[in-house]
Every structure is written in structure tokens, then in C-alpha cells.
What we know:
Distance between the termini: 66 Å
Strand order of the largest sheet: 6-16-13-7-12-11-8
Amino acid sequence: MKNVLKTMQEKYPELDKEVLEGLVDIAENVVKEMTEVKQEEVNSIVEKKINDMLESKDDRGNTMLSKMLGGSGEEVKKENTRRDAMRKFLSAGEKGVTVEEMKVLSAPVNTKSVMTSNDFSTGGIFANEDLMSEMEKDFLNYSAVRNLVSVKNTVEKEITFNKSPLSGRTKAYRRGELDEALESGKLKFEKGRVPLYASTSLIKATREDIQYSTAVDLESLIVEEATESFAVAEANEIINGTGSEQAEGILVNKDIEKIPTATTGVLTFEDISAVYVALKGIYRKNAVFGANSVVIKMLMDLKDTSGRPIFFWNKPLTDTIIGDGNARIEATGTLFGKPLYEIPEMPDTVTTGKPMLVFGDFQTGYVLGNRVEMYMLRDENSDAKTGVVNFIFERYFGGAVKRAEAFKILKSK
């Protein structure tokens, strides 16, 4: 049945190998129950049975294949066409893609974009919406902070947001029926601006790898590599970015209060409780803790004044899970009843003056700007002598702390 499995993989590349193996077993068992079947006819009958199963429709007209993939028949067909066009572009460049496939593969170009056209003369194209959406979902696998902060999509080269006044700046008063209203405080609303900067991911593949790419899903491998590199770079900037041609990092922001531990290099119950109560209740209700695994290990050993551990391993509760149903990151555990997420980008050494832990409402306190366009370039000339083809992905993003008082940082004394 190896030949049958290979044929089905080529016809239905969107299905996992394990799923197809299961379908082959089912079809093979059906054939075994049939009589008067010549051996040379078995493969073709098995293939027909699998096709019939996948293309069979329910009373709403949805095929088994579309339901397995979570979409309508038209959506699955569209995705198959896009994947096929992408494989051809990655494998052979512009020579391997027809005009019609180019329309499927590339996105409409925004007139305000830095790039002005989907032009194969440079070997590059804009990624279409489907690919961008797929990559955005996969960010959840690599970055906890990406899913904690507020994300604002745009086609511009910057995003804007309302700089809300700090909480507690105004007061309400009682007044009599004929009394004049008292001045409650003066508010100053401003627009915050976050510029988006280019981020590039370069992936190299040999011509030999590409030549024999029929044995593997070349698109998935390259896109997965680009997605991971972008997600890691983005997460690092959200935490540590300089703000100069980078996103502004939470640890870098000068307005966020940094509370020192009582003792250098030591973490105590009192240190954590000090950070917890320092954050205003309005932010505390949606706040989470974030720390590197080195600090999480220290938290595991902490006990309260009654000798009970303050860290609890996570149970799969919905309120400690971020992301959607396809990909999600669970909190490592809970601290003072709040989710604790492992954030690798936080410092991994306990050094004097270095941040150890962040506690805050990331959604309220931080905004990430994400350009919904991505440029892809296939360059087979730069490293032609070494037989290497370069795949270059370029996207724009930026970020900034929009409300500093929504965070508190614990640093080593």
C-alpha cells in the first residue's frame, strides 16, 4: 500500500500522513471483504474508496475533507491552489509560476506601501492574506508576550493610540440640586505614535534540497522557519527593545516603577507580595506574572509565612490559557492566584539592579503595531556559486508602553 499512500499524499498534501494512513487501512479492509478482486486492481480500488470517503458530502453539502480541515469545500480548494502556487514559487521562482497563479499567490498592493507593485523583476512578491493569517496564528507557538499585549494591525508605517490619563486623576463630588459642579480635575488627552520598522528573516536552502523538495513540504518548512525567527525577534523587543528603530521594551521604559528586593540575589515571599500590592487594583484584576525559568525555579521554592508554597503548578484552566483553539500557550502555574508565564526574554541571571519579574496588565499597558503586509524575495543569484538559494521575508512591526502604571517590575537589590 506504499504506492497508494504516496499517491494520496500528493493529491491531499494538506492532510497529515497519520490521517491518510488511517484512511488507507479503512479502505484496505473494505477491499479485503470483497470477493473476486484481482491483485492488480486492489490499489486502484483502495484509491477510489479513499477519494469517495473524502469527497462524500453531508446534508449541508460539506465534504468529509473540508470538515477535517475545518473549512468549506471552496475554502479548502482555495487553500490547495495557494499552497500549490507557493510550492512552485519557492522551488522555481518566477519561471515556475503562471500569471493566474501569481494572482492567487500575491496580495493586492496597498498604494501607501513602501513597495509599489507585485513585480517579479526583483524576484519578490507580497504575501497574500491567507499566508499572513497562517503565520500570525503560528506566532502563538513561539511567543507568550505576543498574546498578552494589545495588537493593532495596520497598512500604515505607524500606529496611533490614545494616551489615556493615569487612573485617579479626577474625582467625583456630591452636589446639591442648585449647586454648581465642582472642577474634578484637568485631563489632557494625547495621541501616542508608534513607528513600525522593517524586520528581515533570511533562510538559505541548497538547490539540491529544493530539487528534491517533492519529498517534503518545502513551503511549510520555510514559512515555519521565518515565522519562528520573526516571533522570537518580536518577543525580545517587547521585553528588551531599545525604542530606537526597535519596539520599546517593557524593561527599558523609564516610567515603569521598579521595586528592589530586600536582599541582593534573594527572592522572598515579602518581595512578591510587595510587587503584588503595589499594582493598582484596576490593573491587578487582569494582571499576570512573567519571568525567566531561572526565577521561576526560585519561585517554586518560596513559602508563605505559614510554610505553604506560593507557587502552584498550572491546571488546564481556561483563564490561564492564551491563544485560540489551534495553538495556545499555557501559564506555567499561578502565583498569588494570578497566571505565571515563562518569558524566555526576561533576564536569566539574578544580578544587582537587574529585573527579575514583571507583574502587570499587558493588554492595557502595551500596544504592538503590526503591518499586515509582508514581502517575500527568492534570490538564487547572490550565492549561485555555492548552490544556495536565499529566501528573504520582510515585515514591519513596532511597539510601545502605552500605560506605565499598568506594570510593576521586581528587580534584584
